[in-house]
Amino acid sequence: MAYRTGRRGTGPGRAREPGARSAARPLRIVVADDNPVVRAGLAALLHGRHDIEVAAEAADGREAYEAAVRHRPDVILLDVRMPGTDGLTALPHLVRLAPVLMLTYSRESEIVRAALRLGAGGYLVHGEFTADELAASVRGMREGRAAFTATAANALLAHLREQQDPESVTSISAPSLSQLQSVVAQSSTARRATGVRNRQAFRLSSREAEVMELIAAGMSNQQIAAACFISEKTVKNHINRIFAKLHSATRGEAIACWLGVSGG
What SS3 string covers the chain? Predict the structure, then answer.
């Protein structure tokens, strides 16, 4: 099982990321996947982070539920297809115990939408994220931030476009934009307040803050352009300005900086 590695590195001896809370209790997670190689790989990736601890591993949904009851994790990573109790069957029960981030090879639009309807807080497809992006997504889940890789984001966009009247496809209404943003960004009163604090701290415009939130959610330039209904060139211009204001050279650095301020 191979994962792409971000520039910041994943080893336990790497430098502490900006905004890390050294005295805080590590973020505890449960990893549920029937493939022991995948479980071991994820555990190795996340154990190397100073602020993340893998509390337990599980081979199916029932084991994940039992582990969550026993360990009370902050976040649960859940596969979709597992023998015995699969991820979607266990999901409604698990979300009562902790935020759930789907982490799977399942790419079908119907599966993505079903997982979100059942309470998943995000959906990552293997091969579409770096190690740093996975860690940032796990941290963001505790703060109420959604996380989507390209496949999941595209499934949401396709679903919204299917709901449009054919004559109005080229004219996206404000309610449709609000619906997309509420799903992708999981906007809430508390999260909006955090966004305002971050925007003020870094002197970002409203649009720049919106783009930064979508970057932190793991979206590519293409998905951000679709979510905001702007061109990819405009997205790149926003990102250049954001990186300058956050004094960051990469997406990983920008996300770490943004989450550090979010965490206070």
Answer: CCCECCCCCCCCCCCCCCCCCCCCCCEEEEEECCCHHHHHHHHHHHHCCCCEEEEEEECCHHHHHHHHHHHCCCEEEECCCCCCCCHHHHHHHHCCCCCEEEEECCCCHHHHHHHHHCCCCEEEECCCCEHHHHHHHHHHHHCCCCEECHHHHHHHHHHHHHCCCHHHCCCCCHHHHHHHHHHHHCCCHHHHHHHHHHHHHHCCCHHHHHHHHHHHCCCCHHHHHHHHCCCHHHHHHHHHHHHHHHCCCCHHHHHHHHHHHHCC
pLDDT tens by residue, the chain, 264 residues? 444 434 333 333 344 444 444 457 889 999 999 998 888 888 888 877 889 999 999 999 999 999 999 999 999 999 999 988 899 999 999 999 999 999 988 888 888 888 888 889 899 998 888 888 899 999 998 888 888 888 888 887 777 666 554 444 344 344 444 444 444 444 334 444 555 677 788 888 888 888 887 787 667 787 777 667 688 888 999 999 999 998 888 888 887 777 664 433
Nearest-Å Rg of the Cα atoms of the chain is 18
What phi and psi values does residue 65 have, to the nearest 5 degrees? -65, -45
Return the ∠ at Cα 139 (arms to 76 and 249), rounded to 5°.
140
pTM: 0.55
The first and second tokens of residue 79, run together, are: 């596969």
Q: Which two tokens stand for residue 147?
A: 């996380």
Backbone angles phi, psi at 90, to 5 degrees: -80, -20
